[in-house]
Design a protein that fits this description.
This protein has 426 residues and is an all-alpha fold. Helices cover 80% and strands 1% of the residues. The protein contains 18 helices and two strands. The chain has a two-stranded antiparallel sheet. α4 runs parallel beside α6 and α7 crosses α8 (149-178). The longest helix is centred in the first third of the chain and has 39 residues, at 10-48.
Length: 426
């Protein structure tokens, strides 16, 4: 009979830590594949759009930003679809198949010969993104135990944030030195390694035998679910409007050499890592306070960047604050979705990444419009500030509805599930 993880025994604790690290490694790969394009955008534009680049580098960079939008849209489509269809699957089995899809899709991205085919490959390689984070977050929350959902979610997301400290800057350097296609092959190798780690280290967890697509899709019938999605989809766009064009901003606005871009990305990753830790802990204490606090900090960081990006110190401090506040919002928004979705936990956990990647697509697209229109590389920062203010307004509306329902004695629809099921070690 398999032993059950019920307390912090030394063996069980070691197995839990190794399983969490394997799940976080997947987040590391996803962070690398999602964000490496930001640092390599000029390289990709020069290689895939040579005629446009020769006429206008700004226009070519803006068009190359579609690669980021294509990936984001793939997440939006794939997250709810896979989560709803595969809710009954054993969680480990589903994670392994998702990692196979990541590996194949990333290799295709590296080998596709034309801009159009690269767009298609990026869309397809993004389909498993939200489902992986959603299912991995449920597994991690179960492993962590009662009262630590936010920290479990943050642990999985820590792989993504650490990718921005180590993976993205290193792979950006590889891409600048050896070509952007080699950079994507490095990312594919990370996914292959994650497959092995998950297969060996993550304990078997059954899916929900009572789950059906109809039950999972009931989440879309709840107003608070839609508001939580809009908060992420709109408010988080401020970060991506800036991050998409960080490379040309560093070189054209601050006047630093291209070789400094990986160093700036390291700082972004450090900010994201710190913010992720803080966001996970504060979400376990109070989701409303955490969300509003970090949205305000994000807005302050965007304003500071707009006013001081011409200076090295202003750029570095502002980018660190923006990255930290944005990363802190991610586990907070995911916890909010899991709270308001009732029993539709699989799709709720995945929908967060649909929302954040709508933000990715919107931020990249709207920022690209302003750049292409000739307003310069600071214009996406102004776009980001507008999106951030809209996110704050939506959060206030959502929490106001909760307070109104409590005063009237109506069920708020918020369920604080702890996902503390005992997990067998296979």
């Amino acid at each position: 009979m398999n032993p059950v993880i019920a307390g912090p025994t030394s063996v069980a604790s070691a197995r839990i830590r190794l399983a969490l690290l394997a799940l976080a490694l997947g987040g590391f790969g996803i962070g690398s594949t999602e964000f490496v394009a930001m640092g390599l955008l000029p390289n990709i534009a020069h290689d895939l759009l040579p005629q446009v680049y020769a006429q206008s580098p700004n226009a070519a960079n803006a068009q190359a930003g579609w690669i980021i939008s294509a990936y984001a849209l793939g997440v939006v489509v794939g997250a709810p679809t896979i989560a709803a269809l595969a809710a009954r699957w054993p969680r480990k089995k589903l994670l392994l198949w998702l990692l196979v899809a990541f590996t194949v899709g990333t290799v295709a991205s590296a080998l596709a010969p034309t801009f159009g085919l690269v767009l298609v490959a990026r869309f397809l390689s993004a389909l498993p993104h939200g489902a992986y984070f959603g299912i991995a977050s449920l597994v991690a929350a179960s492993l962590m135990g009662p009262g630590k959902r936010g920290q479990g979610v943050a642990f999985v997301l820590s792989g993504l944030t650490i990718a921005n400290v180590i993976g993205v800057p290193f792979i950006t350097w590889v891409g600048q030195t050896h070509g952007w296609r080699i950079a994507y092959l490095v990312v594919a190798a990370i996914f292959a390694l994650t497959f092995v780690a998950v297969a060996l280290l993550v304990p078997w967890q059954a899916g929900n035998p009572l789950a059906t697509m109809r039950n999972e899709l009931r989440a879309f019938g709840r107003l608070q679910v839609w508001l939580a999605l809009l908060i992420g989809a709109i408010g988080f766009g401020g970060f991506f409007a800036v991050y998409t064009y960080i490379a040309p901003m560093v070189t054209s606005v601050t006047g630093l050499p291209a070789s400094s871009v990986p160093l700036v990305l390291v700082l972004v990753g450090v900010g994201m890592t710190v913010g992720n830790i803080l966001g996970g802990r504060m979400a376990d204490r109070s989701v409303p306070r955490s969300m509003l606090l970090f949205f305000v900090v994000l807005l302050v960081g965007l304003a500071a960047l707009f006013l001081t990006a011409w200076s090295i110190a202003g750029l570095l401090i502002s980018v660190f604050v923006i990255a930290g506040a944005s990363s802190a919002l991610s586990p907070t928004i995911q916890t909010r979705l899991m709270d308001v979705a009732h029993d539709s936990q699989s799709i709720a956990a995945a929908l967060n990444h649909s929302a954040l990647n709508i933000a990715n697509a919107a931020g990249a697209f709207l920022g690209g419009l302003t750049v292409a229109a000739g307003f310069g590389y600071l214009s996406p920062v102004a776009v980001g500030a507008v999106l951030c203010v809209a996110g704050i307004a939506l959060a206030l509306v959502s929490f106001g509805i909760d307070r109104s329902r409590v005063r009237r004695g109506v069920d708020t629809g918020v369920v604080h599930a702890q996902h503390a099921d005992p997990v067998p070690i296979d």
